[in-house]
Each structure stands twice: as C-alpha cells, then as structure tokens.
Amino acid sequence: MTAIELRGVTHRYEGVEMRFDLAVGAGEWLALIGPSGAGKSTLLDLVAGFLRPESGTVRLQGVDRTRDEPATRPISMMFQDNNLFAHLTAEENVAIGIEPRARLGRAARERARSALAEVGLEGFAKRRPSDMSGGERQRVALARVILRERPILLLDEPFAALGPALRAEMLALVASLRTRSPRPPTIVMVTHHPDDARGFADRLAFLEDGHIRLTGPVAELLDRSADSRLRAYLGERAPPREGL
Ligand SMILES: Nc1ncnc2c1ncn2[C@@H]1O[C@H](COP(=O)(O)OP(=O)(O)O)[C@@H](O)[C@H]1O
Ligand SMILES: [Mg+2]
Fold this sequence. Notes:
Blueprint: E1 2-13, E2 16-25, E3 29-33, H1 40-48, E4 55-60, E5 63-64, E6 75-79, H2 90-95, H3 106-118, H4 134-148, E7 152-156, H5 164-180, E8 186-190, H6 194-200, E9 203-208, E10 211-217, H7 218-224, H8 228-234
Parallel strand pairs: 3-8, 3-9, 6-7, 7-8
Antiparallel strand pairs: 1-2, 1-4, 4-5, 9-10
Helix pairs in contact: 3-4, 4-5
Bound molecules: adenosine-5'-diphosphate and magnesium ion.
C-alpha cells in the first residue's frame, strides 16, 4: 500500500509555485535533502495538513485527506522545536499525545511512563522540560510519538541542534523502535546530513526550488548520480569516478 501520495500538490507563496508529486510506500523510510528554502518543510506541512494545497490531492493510507485537519490525519510529526509544554511534566507531555490533559487518567499515565522507559528516560516522569537537556526533551517528544502509534512519522530535522553523536544516537533509537514495531511506521525525514540518509533511509529525494528533482536509492544518488545540482548541493564538482 502507498502510505503517502501527493498528486499535483501545489503551494504558492509570493508568486513562486511549489509543486510536488510523490509516493512513499508503507513502511518505507524516505530522506529529503536539498538547499535551505527548497521547500522541504513546506512538503511535510502539506502532508501533515498544516498547509492546505491550492490544488492537487494528498492521500494517506489510501484515503483522500486533502481537506482534513492535522489532528485527524494518521500522522505524528517532530520538529527541531520539540513542542513540549513548559508547565507540564514529561509524563503529561507524553500522555497528551493520546488524551486531553483535563482527562489524563492513570492508564494514560502508565502508558506514558512505559514509553518514557522505551526512550531511556526511566525516572523522568515528573521532570519538566526546563530541567532536561535538549536531547532529553527530544526523547520525551519521541515517547509521545511512540504512544500515538500513528502509521506515518514526519521528521523535520528534530535532532539537528543536538550535535553529530547525539543526532546519530537519536536516529538509531528511532530505527530500533521501528524494527521492534509489528507495523513499522512510514518515515519521511528532512536532513542536511547525507550520512543520516545513508545510515537510515531506504530512499532519497532531492528537492530544489519547490520541486522534487530526483528520487532513488540513497547510495545510488549520493555516490553515483551525475546530476550537477545534486553534486553542487553536496559540495562536489563532479561525480566520484569508479575505482577512486
Ligand atoms: N507561509 C509562508 N511563510 C513564509 N514563507 C513561505 C511560506 N510559504 C512558503 N514560503 C517560502 O517557501 C520557501 C521554502 O521554505 P521551507 O519549506 O521552509 O524550506 P526548507 O525547509 O527546504 O528550508 C521559503 O523560502 C519561503 O520563502
Ligand atoms: Mg525546513
């Protein structure tokens, strides 16, 4: 099944039109790369419903979701800014992924604690975001994602501010949770690091000027594509030659 299908999806801003056609298979992990301002976040926002397209359709899990509110879509999303509420504890921040705060019951709290344990945050249930490191806060955000069990996960550079070692550790955590899941979520991940794509993604899409220029297997694009714009983005003049 196709988890995400964008057909002729357009978004216009100050006279410039972005247009996306994309299909992501169920359980696939797609990495999005491209220059700053290329439209990577816009693409994710169109999938999540934070932006409504001017034309085209957004189908998720086979259902036309073009007009649906973000909260009703089968999606969880993580951003660089982790969207935690400063006045809530870690446990509450996780549990509100599935229940409104006013109704947080014991069962939801218990499930939140077990999700916190899954991301290595046993004993953090009563801490507030201000008493946690950036990495710990992103683990809380990830625990919320786990609890929501939505089939599609959109990652808009959530670990970009954490530094290389911690970023790799967080992606490895996402990958291990995914392998353990009976129905692995479909992931679309924006990254500026080719190594993130190489290490974790099945497929790569290269965006430029509001369009998807190329898609293909990660290593094929990164190592063998002769596309001059991709090479320029990667900071290379020409494709690496065989045998070098
Ligand atoms: N609603 C909007 N507000 C501000 N800028 C927008 C909006 N819609 C589109 N844009 C434009 O879209 C471009 C791409 O933005 P974005 O999707 O955030 O790029 P990326 O995530 O690839 O860096 C920006 O340069 C901006 O000019
Ligand atoms: Mg962006």
